[in-house]
Design goal:
single chain, about 260 residues, alpha+beta, Uridine Diphospho-n-acetylenolpyruvylglucosamine Reductase, domain 2, 4-stranded antiparallel beta sheet, 14 strands
Length: about 260
């Protein structure tokens, strides 16, 4: 690691002020991505602004939506019985992230802000039509994700909570890398009165995306059969040592059908 200063502010406003005053400063949530990057000397922040004392922890379930504070861990999401009853796909997704240590350290806000192209939470946020709340504004998930490791967040803007509308049905299926447990392909499906939303992570070169053809088919008939013949072009999908673009295109169909079956 390179040398850096360390700050642990007691409020979100103080944290945002520190980040706004120094363009080279980095926010530290769970640190599940940032710490390894620092160890590999791939990033050189002037200051780490630790968000642990900002108080952004907790899950609130309302009649129509669930709100999760940004520093809530994956384990807390996975173990919330009330959340599992309302949005089972979201609680199930959290239980599959990384390993036990990662789930007790990583946070939902950190995952969304980092927007790793193979992370799970972006698929949930996009499929559930979530609203990402920051210290400045509210951003719809459709407008939040801008590409690989890129979001709509400004340098001094921090996620404070995420609100997920409660769907009629939801499920998540993931084909995992056996070592990292990141999604080679992950599919989140959510059924609402207005229609179905389906988001895919791990496959796209630009990160998470919605599959509109599957959404249209499932909105008319929420069953595996409705998307049995829907194919996904390999163009624009990731191809690496773990899976070719063509294999990922095939996996999207397989994981989508499994997710629909689980939700139904």
């Amino acid at each position: 690691m390179y040398d850096f200063a360390y700050q642990k502010p007691a409020s979100i406003d103080a944290a945002a002020k520190l980040l706004g005053a120094d363009p080279e400063a980095k926010a530290l949530a769970g640190g599940m991505t940032l710490i390894p990057v620092l160890k590999q000397r791939l990033n050189r922040p002037s200051t780490l602004v630790d968000l642990a004392k900002t108080g952004m922890v907790g899950i609130t379930i309302g009649a129509d939506a669930a709100t999760i504070s940004a520093m809530t861990t994956h384990a807390a999401v996975a173990h919330s019985a009330e959340l599992r009853a309302k949005i089972p796909g979201l609680a199930d997704l959290a239980s599959w992230i990384g390993d036990e240590q990662v789930r007790h350290r990583g946070t939902i806000g950190g995952s969304l802000a980092n927007n790793d192209p193979s992370a799970c939470y972006p698929a949930a946020a996009l499929a559930l039509n979530a609203t990402i709340k920051t210290n400045k504004r509210e951003i719809k998930a459709d407008d939040f994700f801008k590409g690989m490791f890129t979001t709509a967040l400004e340098p001094d803007e921090l996620i404070t909570s995420v609100t997920f509308p409660i769907p009629q049905k939801s499920a998540y299926e993931k084909f995992r890398n056996p070592a990292s447990r990141y999604a080679i392909v992950g599919v989140f499906v959510a059924c609402f009165p207005a229609g179905v939303r389906l988001a895919i992570t791990g496959a796209g070169q630009n990160g998470v995306f919605r599959h509109q053809q599957m959404e249209q088919a499932l909105s008319s008939n929420f069953s595996q059969d409705a998307i049995a013949n829907v194919t996904t072009p390999a163009a624009g999908l990731n191809s690496d040592i773990h899976a070719s673009a063509e294999y990922r295109a095939h996996l999207i169909g397989v994981m989508a059908r499994r997710a629909v079956a689980k939700a139904a």
